[in-house]
């Protein structure tokens, strides 16, 4: 029984720790994505278009995204009126070749922004690792470079570099260097003032997309449907953009839960074996209890209470062990760079982890206790006395 108790303690504890880790990294990834690319992205205008169907149906009329955003400031002002919206930033996107002190990259991505609007829909202020946004705000030729890109080109704050989008190279100066932790962003993205980006990319009007921030990102699908209906532009939610990674995190969470639950299952099997042997050893005592007037329910409760006591003690100790282990894991150093940036294990403190672990242990222990208890309750005193009890 002590081995079963230990199994439940470790099973519940490890269940909590693994869920805290996978949940923590998932939530950290979501915060990184929301702080970099926003909760919603409003892109091309939806225009009526004829779609070819099968021979019987002929053609149908539907909506297709075309032409980008023609009047971005007007659309942004309309979007800002929604209650859940924290801000809307106009972004002009284009490709350019960048040349720095020690190299060049033909695949840089220029993002033309209004700084104040961008700060309202992203964590750009907190992502700046070197330099100052004040310098960028004051300098028309200032630029913000990702840390990976700046390192590859040998650029630091104050250094000059060239951008060429096909109309000849132009000179800019690094006002600040930022690090989102997302490698695909930090190695290609260059922020310029929107007016300067229009000149460089030769696009005096319009915008590539609007980046939108939300108070409650979980409401993104509902808000996207409303904004799309009002503005007539295609709206993409962060859940749609990051669907693949979200499914990966979900699979990891479920996989870890199933794997760790086997510890609790083994503990339950141990308890079943212990109680079953106890029933065989105590058949005469059970017969005496039945002969003195105890009902089958009374006999079953004796064994169920043993299982319940082990369950309560194991779950309580397991939750304490899980909380302590989660705290200890959160202090372990680790360097992650790729889809996000982290220097230690990221954990999520959620009561649902404890509830789920306790529920799993309850199902396993009660199932393991019920079969021996039912068998003990079915013993007849006469059968025991005659030696026929099984």
Secondary structure layout plus pairing:
Elements: H1 2-37, E1 40-52, E2 59-66, H2 72-79, E3 85-99, E4 104-113, H3 115-121, H4 124-127, E5 128-131, H5 133-138, E6 142-146, H6 147-153, E7 160-164, E8 170-178, H7 183-186, E9 189-193, H8 194-201, E10 209-214, H9 220-231, E11 233-237, H10 238-241, H11 243-281, H12 283-291, H13 296-330, E12 333-336, E13 342-344, H14 351-377, H15 381-386
Parallel strand pairs: 4-9, 6-8
Antiparallel strand pairs: 1-2, 1-10, 1-11, 3-4, 3-7, 3-10, 5-8, 6-9, 7-8, 12-13
Helix pairs in contact: 1-11, 1-13, 1-14, 11-14, 13-14
Beta-strand percent range:
15-25%
**Globular, elongated, flat, extended or rod-shaped: what is the shape?**
elongated
Whole-number radius of gyration? 32 Å
Number of helices: 15
The counted number of beta strands is 13
What would the keywords be for this entry?
390 residues, alpha+beta, 2 domains, six-stranded mixed β-barrel, two-stranded antiparallel sheet, 15 helices, 24% strand
Describe the structure in your own words:
The chain is α+β, with helices and mostly antiparallel strands. The protein folds into 2 domains: 2-33 and 245-386, no CATH class; 39-238, no CATH class. The protein contains 15 helices and 13 strands. It has helices at residues 2-37, 72-79, 115-121, 124-127, 133-138, 147-153, 183-186, 194-201, 220-231, 238-241, 243-281, 283-291, 296-330, 351-377, 381-386, and strands spanning 40-52, 59-66, 85-99, 104-113, 128-131, 142-146, 160-164, 170-178, 189-193, 209-214, 233-237, 333-336, 342-344. The strands form 2 sheets. Strands 3-4-9-6-8-7 form a 6-stranded mixed barrel, surrounded by 4 helices. Strands 12-13 form a two-stranded antiparallel sheet. Strand 12 (333-336) and strand 13 form a beta hairpin.
